[in-house]
Design brief:
This protein is of the alpha/beta class. The chain is built from twelve helices and 13 strands. The strands form two sheets. The chain has a seven-stranded parallel sheet with strand order 8-7-6-9-10-11-12, with helices on both faces. GO terms for molecular function: D-lactate dehydrogenase (NAD+) activity; NAD binding.
Length: about 325
């Protein structure tokens, strides 16, 4: 059997082909799954998708009509999939429920330190042989307060690094993580976390309850010189509200690896096209903002885990097994 994989990055392709080789052939496409590309899947029983795929009602209808029976998503997030429609159509859907939390946590810290110490501005200057220090002053993080929203595996890894910096720790989550509490984390209401934290990092999933968790009110509650980092999901932040606060001169720095309207932009080369997203165009002009293209997970360690789990999800589907990765189980076979 041949597996069709959508949205495969150049670095991923050899890893995918090697992982599937003992079991199946693979056809890797760099295009993302959406309404325009869904017909390509006709005749493929199993497809694999990336986090930026669009698996709405129309796409799922097209897949089912073409004979697809199983969707193996190569990500933890699945807010891009209409699970109710998939279940109604009898499509099996699986995801990767876990991969290296260190990849994302370490990248979140990369963003935090980059905006704090003005690394991008300094690098751009030195390329022009401008070695002035004006505008490059950062601040020590030791003794300051890190606020972590979401203290699961990634949030815990972020907290351990913050503890290593010697920071005070505040946390917010639906349930306390004993490992974070053992490091000295104090769990508080999110409003208190916003008001007292010098560095705020987001590590919660995107759900209806967390959409625009960081809204205009939350942003106004934060310190004027706070650092805000989002390496989770773009929809957690009301970007228009963030731009308004940045225009008012607030925040020491903002590091964003995700953007709420990133679909159709991130993972693609748009350098030769006119920018149609006015919010993103304005966002990247602020000197205290660093935007990256959803790459926090993108280490050989994490991607290899994601791919290995995806292969296992396919094998489990074929063997009739169900694991914690299954979002929509296989329809009963007649």
């Amino acid at each position: 059997m041949e597996i069709l994989a959508f949205g495969v990055q150049a670095d991923e392709r050899p890893l995918i082909e090697k992982a599937f080789a003992p079991h199946h052939d693979t056809r890797c496409l760099d295009v993302f799954l959406n309404e325009d590309t869904a017909p390509i899947a006709a005749g493929y029983e199993i497809i694999s998708t990336s986090v930026n795929a669009s698996l709405n009602n129309r796409v799922l209808q097209t897949l089912a009509a073409g004979g697809t029976q199983m969707i193996a998503q190569r990500s933890t997030g699945f807010n891009n999939i209409d699970l109710q429609v998939a279940e109604r159509l009898g499509l099996t859907v699986a995801r990767v429920s876990y991969y290296s939390p260190y990849s994302v946590a370490e990248f979140a810290w990369t963003l935090a330190t980059a905006v704090n110490r003005r690394i991008v501005r300094a690098s751009n200057r030195t390329r022009d042989f401008d070695f002035r220090l004006d505008g490059l002053m950062g601040r020590d993080l030791r003794g300051r307060t890190a606020g972590v929203l979401g203290t699961g595996k990634i949030g815990e890894a972020f907290t351990r690094i913050a503890h290593g910096f010697g920071m005070n720790l505040l946390g917010w989550d639906v349930a306390e993580n004993p490992a974070c509490a053992a490091l000295g984390m104090k769990y508080v209401e999110k409003e208190q976390l916003f008001a007292e934290s010098d560095l705020i990092s987001l590590h919660v999933p995107l759900l209806p309850a967390t959409h625009h968790l960081i809204d205009a009110s939350a942003l106004r509650t934060m310190k004027d010189d706070a650092i805000l980092v989002n390496s989770s999901r773009g929809g957690l932040i009301d970007t228009d509200a963030l731009v308004s606060e940045l225009r008012a001169g607030r925040f020491t720095g903002v590091g964003l690896d995700v953007y709420e309207a990133e679909a159709g932009l991130f993972f693609l080369d748009k350098s030769l096209e006119a920018v149609e997203d006015d919010t993103l165009a304005r966002l990247v002009t602020f000197p205290n903002v660093v935007v990256t293209s959803h790459q926090a997970y993108y280490t050989v360690d994490a991607v290899s885990q994601i791919i290995d789990t995806t292969v296992q999800n396919v094998l489990d589907y074929q063997a009739g097994r169900r694991s914690e990765n299954v979002l929509v189980p296989a329809a009963p076979r007649s």
